[in-house]
Amino acid sequence: MAEAIRAGEKIKKSGIYSVLHEGRHTATHEVTCVAGKKFPPCDECGDAVQFVLVRHARHIARQEHFKA
Question: Fewer CB within 10 Å, N side or C side of the chain?
Fold first, then answer.
């Protein structure tokens, strides 16, 4: 299993992340996160939320066929 990353850390790779919530107040779900930003805290469990990279995906702005 990939390394779990905490809220507040910088996103190193854009892609689909599985989100694991402290206390399981909600089911695990997937989100898209963009490199360069920070992983956000959860409104319910704050910084205890964890993100695990499921699949890396290059942001379209970094893909040579779509640069302006």
Answer: C
pTM score:
0.85
Q: How far is CA 29 from CA 24, 49, 50, 63, 68, in A?
A: 11, 12, 11, 27, 33
- Position 65, amino acid: H
Mind listing the pLDDT tens digit for each residue in 19-56?
Answer: 999 987 999 999 999 999 999 999 999 999 999 999 99
Parent domain of 35: 5-66
Q: Are 52 and 4 in contact (CB under 8 A)?
A: yes
